[in-house]
Design brief:
Strand 1 and strand 2 form a beta hairpin. The chain has a two-stranded antiparallel ribbon with strand order 1-2. The radius of gyration is 20 Å and the shape is globular. Helix 5 packs antiparallel against helix 6. The protein has a domain of 137 residues. 78% of the residues lie in helices and 3% in strands. It is mainly alpha-helical.
Amino acid sequence: MFLKNAIAALAKSNLYTRIASSIVLIGILMIMGWDLINRGKYFIFEPAIHAIHAILFFEMINLFLQKRIQSLIITIITLGICYYVNFDPRVIILISLINVFATFKILPRNKRIWLGATTFFFLWIFGFLTFFLPFMYLSDFIIYMLGFIIANTIITDTSAYLIGCKWGKTKLSPSISPNKTMEGAGGAVLTSMAFGIILNAFFPIFPSIVHTIVTAGILSILAQAGDLFESYIKRLNNVKDSSNLIPGHGGLWDRLDSLYFILFIISFIAWIRFLI
């Protein structure tokens, strides 16, 4: 009887669907990683990145407008222009401002401002990744570093959830994400540091343990900030998930929120250093 009830509870909680979706996602990620390690020989990694760009931008626009056809048209036009001008920063800023003013009669002021900010956020990352893609094939360090960032993000998300469920008591940001706790956030940072040391032992990226701990800790904090950023945007628009693309998980942005926030900070710092 207990086993029957447990199975029924698992089925009801959509766990099987989440597991199946996770297996598919991991498979896709492994295929992309395999092509990246092979220096894009099979032409999988680069097209996949561009497809992810399109899906993420569509999800973001649709979060605000709640109109799929209009969001799809805006996505096609916007990305078409950006690819044509090679994601010129001036054009990215202009498009972000246009989104703010073009929705004057559609969205309230606070949503328009956040739409503009989020448009800039995504287009900036897309531009950085598009520019950086050819260089990913040239250096093992870049590939290892990307793998380290992705692994750190996964460990942070997983450990924050598990530790928060077990020991979480103090709410991290109840107005944005009521389920996140200080204990989960702090435990995730410590876990990512420990995992970083282990990972660096097998795939040496950083010259010392101190470098590894500091980098892993910063990445973990940024990952959680990215999660909160997306949670705020969803709460602002009164939606639970960015889309229903991935059964049991929500949208693609729900899975990549932490990673893309890290990439935004890295790309912005790289741009500032380039100017200096």
